[in-house]
Structure formats: C-alpha cells, structure tokens
Amino acid sequence: MNRKFPEGFLWGGATAANQLEGAYQEGGKGLNLADVLPGGKVRLELLMKPGFNYEIDQDKYHYPNHEGIDFYHRYKEDIALFAEMGFKVFRLSIAWSRIFPRGDEETPNEEGLAFYDRVFDELHKHGIEPVVTISHYETPLHLIKEYGAWKNRKLIGFFERYVRTIFDRYKNKVKYWMTFNEINGATHFPLFGLGFSASSEEARLQESFQGLHHQFVASALAVKIGHEIIPGSQIGCMLVYAPVYAYDSNPENVMYALKEEQIFNYYCGDVQVRGEYPAFAKRYFKENGIKLDIQEGDLEIIKEGTVDYIGFSYYMSRTEKKEKTNEENASGNIIGGVKNPFLKASDWGWEIDPEGLRISLNKLYDRYQVPLFIVENGLGAKDKVEEDGSINDDYRIDYLRDHIKAMGEAIEDGVNLIGYTPWGCIDLVSASTGEMSKRYGFIYVDRHDDGSGTLERSRKKSFYWYKDVIATNGEQL
C-alpha cells in the first residue's frame, strides 16, 4: 500500500559543493581538502592510510573535483531541472574556502558570498527552499596544513567567524541548516570530516575523538548564533546512520552489535541532540586509552546548543559478529561488518536494505523525539545511455520506491519525518571513490571518469518517476 505523506513534506534532492561546483580556483576560492583528493579507486586507499600528502600531483593523478559537473556556471540550468521535478527543497553545501579562502582571514571573500546569493535567489525564484550544510568534507587546505585541522582547538573560532558571516548574509534566504556532514563518520574517515589524516593507526581514535569534541563545541555555537541571527531557523546535525544487526541470536554477537551501534550511531547524536556525553562513552574511552581535553565552558556550550532536528544519510545496514573471518567480511559495505545472507548488494557492494530504513527511523525517533530528515539516500550505479539518448534506470526507481515505502510505514509507526532529499539528484563526483561512473542522479551528466564528455544534462527515466512521486505527495510510486 502506498501512503500519502504529511502535508508540507519536504521532497527534494541533495548535493555537496565539492562534488558538483567545479571552478576550484575561480571567484577567489581557496583550495580545500576535496581539491587535493585524486579520483579513482586510489582515493579510498589514500583515505584509509595515515599520513596523507595534501599536494596536487597532476602528473600522477586525475582530480575530478576540480571541474565537478560545473554547477558553478550551470546552476540556473540545473535548478530549472529541479523545479521541473517539483522539488520543495534542495540540499547543498557552502564551500568554506569560497567564503574564507584560507579559513583564518578576518574578512570574507565577497565574490564567494555573491555566488551563493545568486544560487539562493535562483532557488527561491522557482519556489525551492535551500537546505544548507555548513561544512561538508571541504576543510580549507590552509587550516589543515597550518593548524592540523580539527585536531586544533583554534578551528572553533575560525568556524564561528564563518558561520556568523553566512548567517548574517543569508538570514533572509536560508531557514534550514546543518552543521557538519556525517559527523559520526569521522572515526572511520577522519580525513573527510575532520580534515586530517591520523598521524598513525594507533593515534586514530584519540585524535578523532578530540577533533569531534572541537566540532561539538563549534556546532553548538553555530546553533546558538543561528537562533539569535535567524529567528525561526531550523539547525540540525547530520549523521551517517546504519542500523547494526547481530549476525545471529548468540548473546555475545548481540552485545557486540549493540556496542558498535552505540559508538557509531548514537555517540554524536547524544552529544548534539541531548547536549551531553553518553554514559557508554566513559567505558569506551577507558578501554581505548582516549583522554579528551575538555576546557572550561565547553560542556555548557554543548548543553545550550542542541540541534532542532536530525538530518541523516541512509544507504545500508551493517551486520556484526564478535569473531569473524576475512571471508565473512562485507568488503563493499563502506562501514564494515559481515555479509548479510538476506540482502543483495549494489554494483559497489553496498548492501540494499529498505526495511533497515524503517528500523532506523523508529530507532532514532524513539531515542531522540526530535524531527527527522533523510538528507541522503540513493543508489550508485552504472547507467547506460541508449541509442535514442534515453536512460532506463529502473533499478534506481526500484531502490528508491522501496525506501520511500519504508518511510511511509515509519510515519505510520508514529515517526516525525519532515523530508527526503535523495543523494546526488544530479550525477556528480563520488565522495568515496572520486568516480563519475558511480551515478546517483535523476539527471544524467555527460562526464566520464577520464574527464571526457560534454557536461550536457539529460533526464533519466527516474526523473519522470520522481516528478510523479512529488506531485502526488508519495501516493504514486
């Protein structure tokens, strides 16, 4: 049974500046982390190893983020396509280094500010509300090299200046904000979220959790500042959420799965929504030799700066057992675990679990009782352009249909879900692999892994399907 969604439900799509804007040296923009990440499978290898080299080596690597899909010059065309689908909202991020090219300046870059003015104005022209991520995997490179990124407490002050600047500038244009993208992923990939590569594998947890503490303070300050500057604004956190299943009913595996779920799914949420560190963290820190430097006033700021809603990404679930062999590992699942015998996987090995989304929504709402917003969900797949130019991506439609049905069931369960913005509503550069061939969009972009292509946009079959979904408020799937 297809369910009609609540009145005013926020249908739309999601992107990130570093994956679609391009123009990496235009408009006064400074270099950021994404600009030094090469494309292809090598990206994941570099992300996983300590000691990343933050230099651009054009002779050795290709850097697809430098051009992205050229949204910087084509945003009007793209927003018109979003409007044609009927988007109510569009999730995007602001590139910090467009506003403060080095990250530590006193004065912002006017060209960068003006660019987002134009984007927001264009969205409003089409009746689309922007949903803005303040920091989405693009720490300014100068802050990484000069200060060690979020390992350094000084970044709290630089971030505070940045958020004051954008809140002041866009207070009449943006109501929905999120502070840090997929903040809880930082312990797995500190380079993405925290802007630094761990100095060693042994130091990864200590450095990551200290960096997260600095981000918690910065996020709470952003919430407080946002509420002062933009009355009525909604400022959320953003988590990557993957329910953790026990492999079987062995109590040892159930307990192991619970511990993994606590530290991955709930640690950051507890701090940002409840305003305090969870009880389970004390033992985890003790067992892993983690000692946080928490300065006077930090905990009060965190308590006073709790978020208004939870934005989260959902791509997969995770299955865990205490003792596992290499053969059992779900190698494609980016956050680990063992293979789930009941689930199929995508072309990239990500396990597909729509029922897990309903489970996730219920778990999150039961725990926090704040509005939920699915701000990423989608299927990365290889798309084939037919001779007549059509792209019949029924696999994507099937994936999204099943997940939207699960959302409808969760709403019927009593969950307060306010919106849905599938990831990569237009094809863009993959964050994890730097590939264009891993496509998510309703809109095809003629750009390929080797950098060839015209960048022309075309509508996939899923474009028309999602248009009908929005027009019928989820009743026609």
UniProtKB/TrEMBL annotation:
<keyword id="KW-0326">Glycosidase</keyword>
<dbReference type="GO" id="GO:0016052">
    <property type="term" value="P:carbohydrate catabolic process"/>
</dbReference>
<dbReference type="InterPro" id="IPR033132">
    <property type="entry name" value="GH_1_N_CS"/>
</dbReference>
<dbReference type="InterPro" id="IPR018120">
    <property type="entry name" value="Glyco_hydro_1_AS"/>
</dbReference>
<dbReference type="InterPro" id="IPR017853">
    <property type="entry name" value="GH"/>
</dbReference>
<dbReference type="Pfam" id="PF00232">
    <property type="entry name" value="Glyco_hydro_1"/>
</dbReference>
<dbReference type="InterPro" id="IPR001360">
    <property type="entry name" value="Glyco_hydro_1"/>
</dbReference>
<keyword id="KW-0378">Hydrolase</keyword>
<dbReference type="GO" id="GO:0008422">
    <property type="term" value="F:beta-glucosidase activity"/>
</dbReference>
<dbReference type="GO" id="GO:0005829">
    <property type="term" value="C:cytosol"/>
</dbReference>
<feature type="active site" description="Nucleophile">
    <location>
        <position position="376"/>
    </location>
</feature>
<comment type="similarity">
    <text>Belongs to the glycosyl hydrolase 1 family.</text>
</comment>
<protein>
    <submittedName>
        <fullName>6-phospho-beta-glucosidase</fullName>
    </submittedName>
</protein>
